[in-house]
Specification:
Shape: globular
Number of helices: 4
Structural class: mainly alpha
Order of helices and strands: HEEHHEEH
Radius of gyration: 12 Å
Strand order of the largest sheet: 1-2
Length: 97
């Protein structure tokens, strides 16, 4: 049975799609805000630079026409694996246009 991708693998996939170096993750498999800033800047989404990591991720997903679900983030400004998958799908959507 295939294991779902880890957070660091999802972040690397997103970075590869954008043609940028992956910012990686910090301790405890927590993604940094950097990947969401890179997505916003590279795709020209116009989301505010002062937004939190969760607000950026949500804005990216919602800009693609999809809903941000409660299971996509958790306390402590953590984006879950499901949330990163939603961000990956949003990036794929924007790159198809």
């Amino acid at each position: 049975m295939n294991q779902p991708p880890r957070k660091d693998e999802l972040i690397s996939q997103i970075a590869q799609l954008l043609g940028v170096e992956s910012p990686g993750i910090s301790t405890g498999s927590t993604g940094t805000k950097d990947i969401f800033v890179l997505i916003n800047d590279t795709l020209g989404l116009g989301l505010g630079p002062t937004l939190t990591k969760q607000q950026l991720a949500r804005g990216i997903v919602e800009a693609s026409g999809n809903a941000w679900l409660p299971s996509f983030d958790s306390t402590g400004s953590t984006i879950t694996r499901k949330g990163l998958e939603a961000v990956l799908h949003a990036v794929q959507f924007f790159l198809q246009e």
